[in-house]
């Protein structure tokens, strides 16, 4: 599988609300099939954005190290990992590895 396919694999998402102090709640998200891939924030959207950033960085790092990330199911055919990486502000290195143009992403 190439990097584009690996970044298009749908992983199970776990979500929970955690009370960090009495009356103080945060959202904790995780892809349990990817070791150490978790994020926590006070707002769901922030936690999901950080979780996606960590998922992409983890998969890219594993590929660069010659290792294969877990592949629990087939990649989604309608996924665009290049757009996601650019939208998250990830480095041009990821875009280059995916074979796409560098620079900020634009939405139509």
What would you say about this model in short?
The protein is of the alpha+beta class and 108 residues long. 36% of the residues lie in helices and 18% in strands.
Notes on the protein architecture:
With 108 residues, the protein is of the alpha+beta class. A three-stranded antiparallel β-sheet has the order 1-2-3, covered by helices on one side. The protein is built from four helices and three strands, in the order αβββααα. The longest helix has 21 residues. It has one domain: Double Stranded RNA Binding Domain (2-Layer Sandwich). The C terminus is likely disordered. Helix 3 runs antiparallel to helix 4. It comes from Bradyrhizobium pachyrhizi. InterPro entries: TTHA1013/TTHA0281-like. This is HicB-like antitoxin of toxin-antitoxin system domain-containing protein.
């Amino acid at each position: 599988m190439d990097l584009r396919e690996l970044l298009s694999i749908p992983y199970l998402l776990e979500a929970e609300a955690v009370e960090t102090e009495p009356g103080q709640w945060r959202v904790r998200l995780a892809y349990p099939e990817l070791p150490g891939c978790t994020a926590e924030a006070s707002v769901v959207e922030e936690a999901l954005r950080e979780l996606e950033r960590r998922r992409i960085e983890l998969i890219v790092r594993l590929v660069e190290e010659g290792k294969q990330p877990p592949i629990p199911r087939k990649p989604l055919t309608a996924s665009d990992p290049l757009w996601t990486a650019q939208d998250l502000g990830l480095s041009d290195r990821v875009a280059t590895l995916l074979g796409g143009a560098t620079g900020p992403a634009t939405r139509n």
